[in-house]
Design goal:
This protein is mainly alpha-helical. Helices cover 62% and strands 5% of the residues. The protein has three domains: 9-124 and 132-238, MFS general substrate transporter like domains (Growth Hormone, Chain: A, Up-down Bundle); 244-313, no CATH class; 325-397 and 428-592, Growth Hormone, Chain: A (Up-down Bundle). A hairpin with a 2-residue loop joins β6 and β7 (362-363). Its main location: membrane.
């Protein structure tokens, strides 16, 4: 029995000793970074819109776009962080560097919210159009701090979970079980950080001072970094293997350069240099990419064969790209969910600021209403895990067996011995990953419909009491929209992550996380775009339109109705995409006997 891990080294670069490196404790040290990242990002995002409107005196729609642009950039930069980690820095250095960057950003944000020189003069009017807006210098400092935080978030989110899994040896059954336990707790840690952000941190921002709230974020990240560095000698480190993005670009470049080349009638003539056990069988879909594997005279120099990965790619590399392309319809139809999510931390929080929020002598901070959102996530996951899965087990018979519906979603080509240990219970019991995504999309559409109905009620009250700062309508009317979209996230987050991990090719597993995170990024950016379009088309110089300076004078209900309609339409497109994907997946899989024994998948061809 080997005492070292084959593909990992210790901090000195020697083969990693199993008894001295890795395991649950080193993996847990990275979770502190994740908690602080969630604390900073969500603690800022859920309450930023009130600061932009109340202190910086920005219009309602502008404030919402600042928040969604910040969140969209945070998730988009995950691609940069993943690229640097895979190709140059490694996950350890990426986490260390970007944690420092985020700490610097939160520190600068704390300073900018403390110094009066970095804010416009206070204003007694409730209508921000009558107040002096923040100037370009003040906004510049605010943007600098926000986008430093976004940069830090991008680097951390792309590497923390991967670095945690690096601490376990998948070939060791005991460590494999520990890795599953780590991932099962990872989403709980994310939710815990978010819960602390929307309750404790938001309360400190509103009642003690924003600079205190952001200062706590900076101090907690510093402590987490110190704890992270304390485990340096116990970590296992994986060597940089290259970015899947580069591999995709190589296939596209090679196929484009040989667009005039003729495909051979015999596919065995296509170039392949990988060993038989690692190969992926050729498929007829997206045949134009097969030209990247056609050997031409240009691949020979002075009579000898010269393999340039930008001009010639093996069939397996091409098939990996094809697999990623097959994921794109599902990927595209999940973007709209995160657009509805964006409304929960922007316009829904603005709604809360105008409503009655007191319980006895305690006033609930507007940003803390998102606690119902986080609570819905935890409740939905608990109900699914404790009630739905046991019912499915009972309905299907013995708990260890997989029915044909679940089995059809497992890739059974030559490279398909990979199966997600993290989410085995979702594949073998309960709903499939696509069903989980569908449930999440439907719940979010219902949430937007509920939000539109509630806003009609709120606006009717606002018209009767238009001079009142706080409307005589309880903020708890907003609970249905928070709860439905929150429950939707509980299902779609799990389903998306499972889908992209299990359906992406083995050589591009890191790319699967990037695909998932880009749906969040594009969802936030689409929210900003949609707000800008609606504001421009429904408003004018003498008319506010649906979205404008103050939500009491607009038609936010129409905007929510539009989002509900788009969400239901997108849900229909998702169903079509899911049917197409499953049809293609089943068709491409060779005849394979699948045997399931206690969550282990074996193949016999």
């Amino acid at each position: 029995m080997s005492l070292t891990v084959a593909d990992a080294v210790d901090y000195k670069g020697h083969p990693a000793d199993k008894s001295r490196t890795g395991g649950w404790v080193p993996a847990a040290l990275s979770l502190g970074i994740e908690i602080c990242e969630r604390l900073s990002t969500m603690g800022i995002a859920v309450n930023l819109v009130t600061y932009l409107g109340g202190t910086m005196h920005l219009p309602s729609a502008t404030s919402a776009n600042v928040v969604t642009d910040f969140m969209g950039t945070s998730f988009l930069l995950c691609l940069l962080g993943g690229f640097l980690a895979d190709s140059y820095l490694g996950r350890y250095r990426t986490i260390a560097i970007f944690a420092m960057v985020q700490m610097l950003g939160t520190c600068l944000l704390a300073v900018s919210t403390k110094l009066p020189q970095l804010q416009p003069p206070p204003c007694k009017y409730t209508d921000v159009t009558q107040c002096e807006q923040a100037n370009s210098f003040q906004m510049g400092i605010l943007y600098l701090s926000l986008y430093l935080i976004a940069l830090g978030t991008g680097g951390l989110k792309s590497s923390v979970s991967g670095f945690g899994t690096d601490q376990f040896d998948e070939k060791n059954e005991k460590e494999k079980a520990q890795m599953a336990y780590f991932f099962n707790r990872f989403f709980f840690v994310i939710s815990t950080g978010t819960l602390m952000a929307v309750t404790v941190l938001v309360y400190i921002q509103d009642e003690v001072g924003r600079s205190w709230g952001y200062g706590i974020c900076s101090a907690s990240m510093f402590i987490a970094v110190v704890i992270f560095f304390s485990g340096t000698k116990r970590y296992r480190y994986k060597k940089c293997s290259g970015s899947p993005i580069v591999h995709i670009c190589q296939v596209v470049s090679a196929a484009s350069g040989k667009k005039t080349a003729k495909l051979p009638s015999d596919i065995s003539l296509l170039y392949e240099d990988l060993p038989e056990a690692s190969r992926i069988h050729h498929t007829d879909q997206f045949r134009f990419l097969d030209k990247a594997s056609v050997v031409t005279e240009d691949d020979y120099r002075q009579g000898s064969f010269m393999m340039n990965p930008w001009k010639l790619c093996p069939v397996t590399r091409v098939e990996e790209v094809k697999k990623m392309i097959r994921l794109l319809p599902i990927w595209a139809t999940t973007i709209i969910f995160w657009t509805t999510y964006a409304q929960m931390i922007t316009f829904s929080v603005e709604q809360a600021t105008t409503m009655e929020r007191t319980i006895g002598h305690f006033q609930i901070p507007a940003g803390s209403l998102t606690v119902f959102f986080v609570g819905a996530i935890l409740i939905s996951l608990a109900v699914y895990d404790r009630f739905i899965i046991p019912l499915c087990k009972k309905w299907r018979g013995e708990p260890g067996k997989m029915n044909i519906m679940s089995a059809s979603f497992v890739e059974t080509t030559n490279d398909s011995h990979y199966s997600s240990n993290v989410f085995d219970h979702f594949l073998s019991t309960g709903f499939t990953n696509l069903q989980l995504i569908g449930i999440g999309l439907f719940l979010s559409a219902m949430g937007m419909a509920a939000a539109a109905v509630v806003e009609v009620k709120r606006l009717s009250v606002a018209k009767k009491y238009n001079e009142t700062t706080t409307l005589p309508i309880t903020v708890f009317y907003l609970i249905p929209q928070f709860f439905l979209v929150g429950a939707g996230e509980g299902f779609i987050y799990t389903g998306q992550l499972d889908f992209f991990i299990t359906q992406s090719p083995k050589g591009m597993k890191t790319m699967s996380t990037g695909l998932f995170l880009t749906t969040l990024s594009l969802g936030f950016f689409f929210s900003s775009l949609l707000v800008s379009i609606v504001k421009a088309t429904t408003g004018s110089s003498d008319k506010q339109g649906w979205l404008g300076e103050h939500i009491n004078k607009g038609r936010l209900d129409c905007f929510y109705g539009l989002l509900a309609a788009l969400s239901f339409f997108n849900f229909g497109l998702f169903l079509l995409s899911a049917v197409w994907f499953r049809k293609k997946t089943v068709k491409q899989a060779p005849v394979t006997e699948i045997i399931v024994k206690e969550s282990t998948i074996e193949e016999k061809c």
